[in-house]
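Morning run. Coffee first, then this:
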Amino acid sequence: MAEIILVRHGQANAQANDEAGYDRLSDLGRQQAGWLGAHLRDTNPHFDRVLTGTLTRQADTARGMGYDITAQDPRLNELSYFALAHALEDQHGIPAPRDATEFAIHLPQVIDHWARDRLEGIPERFEAFAARIAEALDEACNAPGRTLIVTSGGVIGMALRHTLGLENGGMAKIMLQIMNSSVHRLEYVHDTLMLGAFNATPHLDIPDRAHARTFV
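And here it is:
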């Protein structure tokens, strides 16, 4: 059996309006990573390999958890949300969200237009994004032992789409619920990839850390 633990990065710069500006952990994001690392050390700390994408917020989360990174794989990088949002506004007149409520409506619209190939001039097509996540997961399934993957919400959403056979609308809803520093467990048994746990935050469940349960 192979076990894959997916972790979303800690809270990043939520005030950013482009990819580069977003790609750094906030003070709370660093604290979330530290708390998660302490929880893992107290429970089941060993991983046979630790993978991240090449994004700063992903690598800094893994290091903040106390792990050395085995390899950085660009296939584990997040979708280009800001580029997609700009294309959606320019080409279809759907403005970028101004708050969390609008974002909950906006993200499924982005995914829908992207998946139907209705956005031009974007960094990556939807099918290419889906293919690279599936490829990275398949490799992890064939690696023995436990693999820790520190990545981003869109990658985790696509991983669950791949695992559960979700429609794109269901994937978008899943993505909206993925918390910063949350833990998701996949198990590859009997030649089948199965979901063992979703969106766990045991390191944030004590009352005085309620403020740290963040989505953006």
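The helical segments are 19-22, 27-42, 56-64, 81-92, 100-115, 126-141, 153-164, 168-177. Good start to the day.
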